[in-house]
Request: fold
Amino acid sequence: MSSTFGRLFQITTFGESHGGGVGVLIDGMPPGFHVEAADIQRELDRRRPGQSAITTQRQESDAVEIVSGVFEGVTLGTPILMLVRNTDQRSKDYDTLKDVFRPGHADYTYFEKYGVRDHRGGGRSSGRETVGRVAAGALARVALATVGVRIVGGTVQVGDLRTETRDWSQTEKNLIRCPDAEAAERFIALIERTRDAKDSIGGVIEVVAQGVPVGWGDPTMSKLDAMLGAAMLSIPATKGVEIGGGFGMCALNGSQTNDVFDGESYQSNFSGGIAGGITNGNEVVVRVAVRPATSIGKPQLMARKEGGTETVAIEGRHDPCICPRVVPVAEAMLAVTLMDAWLHQRALRGGVK
Amino acid sequence: MSSTFGRLFQITTFGESHGGGVGVLIDGMPPGFHVEAADIQRELDRRRPGQSAITTQRQESDAVEIVSGVFEGVTLGTPILMLVRNTDQRSKDYDTLKDVFRPGHADYTYFEKYGVRDHRGGGRSSGRETVGRVAAGALARVALATVGVRIVGGTVQVGDLRTETRDWSQTEKNLIRCPDAEAAERFIALIERTRDAKDSIGGVIEVVAQGVPVGWGDPTMSKLDAMLGAAMLSIPATKGVEIGGGFGMCALNGSQTNDVFDGESYQSNFSGGIAGGITNGNEVVVRVAVRPATSIGKPQLMARKEGGTETVAIEGRHDPCICPRVVPVAEAMLAVTLMDAWLHQRALRGGVK
Amino acid sequence: MSSTFGRLFQITTFGESHGGGVGVLIDGMPPGFHVEAADIQRELDRRRPGQSAITTQRQESDAVEIVSGVFEGVTLGTPILMLVRNTDQRSKDYDTLKDVFRPGHADYTYFEKYGVRDHRGGGRSSGRETVGRVAAGALARVALATVGVRIVGGTVQVGDLRTETRDWSQTEKNLIRCPDAEAAERFIALIERTRDAKDSIGGVIEVVAQGVPVGWGDPTMSKLDAMLGAAMLSIPATKGVEIGGGFGMCALNGSQTNDVFDGESYQSNFSGGIAGGITNGNEVVVRVAVRPATSIGKPQLMARKEGGTETVAIEGRHDPCICPRVVPVAEAMLAVTLMDAWLHQRALRGGVK
Amino acid sequence: MSSTFGRLFQITTFGESHGGGVGVLIDGMPPGFHVEAADIQRELDRRRPGQSAITTQRQESDAVEIVSGVFEGVTLGTPILMLVRNTDQRSKDYDTLKDVFRPGHADYTYFEKYGVRDHRGGGRSSGRETVGRVAAGALARVALATVGVRIVGGTVQVGDLRTETRDWSQTEKNLIRCPDAEAAERFIALIERTRDAKDSIGGVIEVVAQGVPVGWGDPTMSKLDAMLGAAMLSIPATKGVEIGGGFGMCALNGSQTNDVFDGESYQSNFSGGIAGGITNGNEVVVRVAVRPATSIGKPQLMARKEGGTETVAIEGRHDPCICPRVVPVAEAMLAVTLMDAWLHQRALRGGVK
Reply:
């Protein structure tokens, strides 16, 4: 239950960063959708470490195997297991961390929660857990595309640099996945300076769903906003989420933020495509606050497991800014959330014989 | 399922704003806790309409009846039904709205989702649904208090006015529930101007849990951050949530935001009391973006149900700024979320005979 | 969670037999179905105590109030609360039972489980909890009828007396709800002798769903057989359930029990309408073993709460054979289970835009 | 959701009989339990095909890999993936079945439900799906053993031959897993005659949990009886389940079946160790009706997918009586169900800090 997201399109990720592999089990995928391993692999390649000079140099091919639930390229309606083996693990990089709790990391909380801990690379709290999310999202995208839903996303802020431009055709053309080619260069320069200082920096990413029909989501506890809030804040290193106008609306008046609707189109999108928890036909717009990565090369004061403190520099291969790698994860979680909402609406109104 | 929050401490709200009543059914409350109707009523009175000059003038006594699950002031471990009857409904105020879709409201999305609609006051999408949440939260608070957890909250921004002061003893002493007596006056003056202009204004509220043990929450899909994200964004009129440093951390470096821990206390709280999805012993800090109320007296362009548009002024009794009334709701959802996390930790580690 | 049945059509019952009332909250009822309180009341009247000389003489009118989720006779798609107040409680009948654990009853297990106990009439373990089930089932029947599903049921065994006749038009014409008028007389005579001996007797009831489409149910953990197994064995006093041929098939060969199907109809129904967990178009047939009621007037040896034993005769108004009152409950649980399976099939295959 | 069993100890099986493999993902296993692959393998070997002359001759080594959730022989509290590769598949045996629906099988219902079908050996409706259940059960047994719970089981009826003897030390010493060495010989002789006639035969198995504490289970929808009913009837080829006295109690009086309890021990066990849905300290006793296997070598009339009928003899390697192979599966499901009930009781009463 604790590693599961979704109620009808139910995804459960598994795997430690230094164990036998990572992946996802999906229960609830409807039958009859065409999907190939290549559809999944393409998204995994976007999340994969070692892509560029501004991401971690850990090398993982992250090759996916679809173990079950797909037969001759068609979903069977049965559970789909997707498995990715771990390869480049270098567990010994973590030996110096065995006896300390890294600041900002889950080391201490994990140890107190479970009483045991796999110290090699964070275990389940590693970013590697998101492999399964991206695989599940790739599957959801395939299904959503059949009803015209398309998902895009990118990095819109790094440090105190922002952009208001949204040219989604640009995001795969620059290392930071920014929807603004010019801003991308500034973002990257800042990240390089940060990396050279053995530090990390935060940012904001935005994910958008286009073509979503009216009527997905629920009015109270399962508002689509709420499901998206859970989806996004379940991604490692995220500490904030906003829909549409978000925090920026707080300083405005209702007469400004009530999206005027003439029965066909909207004059604005402060609601982020969701009114009363239910999609309104406008683009679904979600922004996520990504904290500076907690793994940094700079020496830091750490609590020792046996008491006392120690100053340690964390060896290993870190991301100075994880935004470009969070983009495909957040897109995946948006896809998964919409898939679940779609199936709910089918249950509520669908016309099976 | 869609009106349910929580997995072990499971609350399901029910009731339309103009039907037979509203309330909550709680499945999963452990036995043996002492609770009186007065514990519930006290919190409901904080949420109730008609409290002051800056809230809606709808008069509801919101008297709660505990129908089941409590015997002689002690929880039985069985489902607890709490029921509040509707009294001051004035459904005819809504007659002019029968044939139009109010901008920003759920009228249109609701109609498209369900095909039917109770036009009297929003039905389930009314703020009145939160009565049940507050009742459930009051129960959770009673239980949490037995392990030393205390919940506070207040309004920390209205429009573009903010405060950094957090004197929680002040919140019940001013109409806007601000933890800063001086800022409260400025906030209230702005709200009064807004009300006189027949408009509404947004704000930010902050809720904090003190005394939470280390180890509550989960590392992946059910991160405590994620559960809080869902909890807060399921509250009507919220469009953003952040934990600890939130969006403000994006502009900082990891060397600044990694909360240094010496084994006993933290030098900062950018994590908002949650590291890797699990409580770390620090205060749990959550901020929520509250949009300007969508119900305003100003004339607005609305789409007609039968096609075309119309300019309508919404009659009725509205809140110019709903922040002071969202505070007890957000506190309740924080309590409910922690209660659920607590029970999960008991299942995982608890030492039953 | 523990008082909830169903995943998409989710019913949660509440209420103690001697508290403020009993009932059910239904989350997941689709919108647009026509339902009146009378549809619910008719079924509750079939379950109600005090119907005849062979049932308990406790007098409860069991008048239902639909508090939420229905507006002008149409379901809104929102949670439906149905509440029945307790009236004829006579709690003092139970005073002598305060300090002993009745054999076969849940008194001891309840006390050990919860540490607290409402000794007045069994609390949640009272048969009165089934009021909520019957109300939920009545709602499900209304919806199922729109797709041609009809549910019938009756008592087919009392003590060692059985019938193979299934004339469902007879069941409401005799006190024991037997689908065989002649057998009914023998059943009733046996029950009267048992009642006069201050004892109780068991029996078997059968419930049948006619007109169920092919394709409802799931192939593994959520086989329709499994869901029905849970549904039936969650009814108080049931200790066995069988589908179609059930235990009787164990002595036969596959060449006898494989229901030959020519593409249109079946030559037999050993599968009870369910093959591989999924409906096959034949009648769904379920039989339930109802144990002799544990409340009997005969003196019995009981363990004392404070240690030692005592011989006590249980005062109060008991059912010598609860089969006729379990029939509407089992029918209700069959309806609820099918409703849930229907909604799942809609989610899996349903063609909403 | 449809392939998931359990609420806190949540197991989801996956895999088609002729795909990349089968197995189980377990979410909710508490940390700190010692478990080796050998603990799992031992149980899988009991379920494995090709064990003896009276089971199918399909040869599968069923070697398990624990992919995640266990580190250095200790459970981490994270999801545990256990994977078994398929090896001896002989898919071409099934080619003649591509265009017909086998009687009693899920072929027709599956095709109608999903619109697609993996015709090679039943896909998910194959008995091979139970590999995952047995692996999960083995894990649950390891944990339950630490609190003194032990699970045994065996075949107590084949065709019309029965035994009342329960010498559990005998079950692994004979091919049919009968707790009565003498009856085992008669059972086996009957099965051999049935096999030679290219037919199959049913039977009854009994599984028992010893040493279960008082207080596990719930009083209403989640009665332990109900959970066990779902658990058992989710096993392929089962069509009935009874707890304790079961159907046999129906012919008795309450004065006979009320298990007299003196505060320490019971004089009988008609309740099967469960009173009011909650364990009472006595042995938990469950019997399961296993239908004759639907795969038989005798020619049978089958409906053709394209219309019309055809007489076909099913080639392949079948079990004439699947009871001995259902025994470890039913034991596993009993273990899984108790594990879930245990964790619930910990959540309800457990005393974590």
Observations:
- Chain C is about 25% helix and 20% strand.
- Chain C touches chain A at residues 8, 28, 30-31, 77-78, 147, 213, 219, 342-353 (CB under 8 Å).
- The mean pLDDT of chain C is 92.
